[in-house]
Amino acid sequence: MPFKSYDTHTHLNDDAFYNDLSTYVDRAHELGVTEMNIVGYDAQGNQRALAIAHQFPGMHVLLGFQPENAPEFNAPELAKLKMQLADAAVVGIGEIGLDYHWDTPVDAQMKAFAAQLSLARELNLPVVIHARDAMDDVYAMLKAAGVEQFGGVIHSFTGDAADAQRFLDLGMYISFSGIVTFKNAKDIQAAAQIVPLDRILVETDAPFLAPTPYRGKQNEPGYVKYVIDNLAAQLQIEPAELAAQTTANAHRLWRIK
Ligand SMILES: [Zn+2]
To answer: Residue 60: left if φ>0, alpha if ψ -120 to 50, beta else—which one?
Structure first.
């Protein structure tokens, strides 16, 4: 029996999986991955995330509008999101943040990000943060929102050790995806060395970012096992220990009993 682990950021709500959920859930179970966060990103993704959690055990849900979909986040969507967040499967808000890699208007991104951070503060829900080519602005907005009070994680971390340190100083967690397994990801690997073991999370971000040895293939939730194997080797600890520690961290952050 493989060690048990927790994929803290996955998109079974994506078209890549949604019509064949049992296959991917079964395969994850075979690899010991018995717990997952299904993370929303737009209206349909949010609705599907809830439907998945109502269908399978061990699934937790985060709901939100990611930066690319920020222009769709209007007043009616905010009202709907607020209602959906009352569902018992929900453990947080996300993924939300800023992404300057694509050309989504920055003002719309900031407006949606700020509104969802306010909601997190109001409802006392931890947040999952998507930050791409936008570390300084994400940091400033999290600090201004008082993230220390409701908690959060930088998902699929792509910064360096100094970036990791300033988010740690805000009381946040750092989540590593398959990117940390790539040979050329030296800055991210250096960052992993300075994050205390009780602040590390692991994730797949499936269907994207498959870890070594599946780099370039379609990712899936079970592959968080390979992120753990690789990262544990970097940290010179046993994979089972890293799996147990990151699961405990996830339960603490999302207040899962
Ligand atoms: Zn994601």
So the answer is: beta
C-alpha 10 to ligand 1 mean position (Å): 6
Centre of ligand 1 to C-alpha 243, Å, is 20
Q: What is the DSSP string of 112-138?
A: HHHHHHHHHHHHT--EEEEEES-HHHH
Tell me, in angstroms, the distance from the centre of ligand 1 to residue 8's CA: 10
Answer whether residue 1 shows pLDDT above 70.
Answer: no
CA 20 to centroid of chain Cα atoms: 22
Distance 175 CA to ligand 1 centre (A): 11
Ligand 1 center to 46 CA (angstroms): 12
User: How many structural domains is the chain composed of?
Assistant: 1
Domain span including residue 46: 5-253
User: For the segment 63-107, what is each residue's pLDDT rounded down to a tens digit?
Assistant: 999 999 999 999 999 999 999 999 999 999 999 999 999 899 999
CA neighbours closer than 13 Å in the CB half-sphere of residue 215: 12
- How many Å lie between the centroid of ligand 1 and the Cα of residue 33? 18
CA–centroid distance, 145 to ligand 1, in Å, is 22
Q: 249 CA distance to ligand 1 centroid (A)?
A: 19
Residue pair 158/180 in contact (Cβ under 8 Å)? The answer is no
**CATH for 13:** 3.20.20.140
Closest CA to 204 of 186, 181, 183: 181
In which band, very low, low, confident or very high, does the pLDDT at 2 lie, cut at 50, 70 and 90?
A: confident
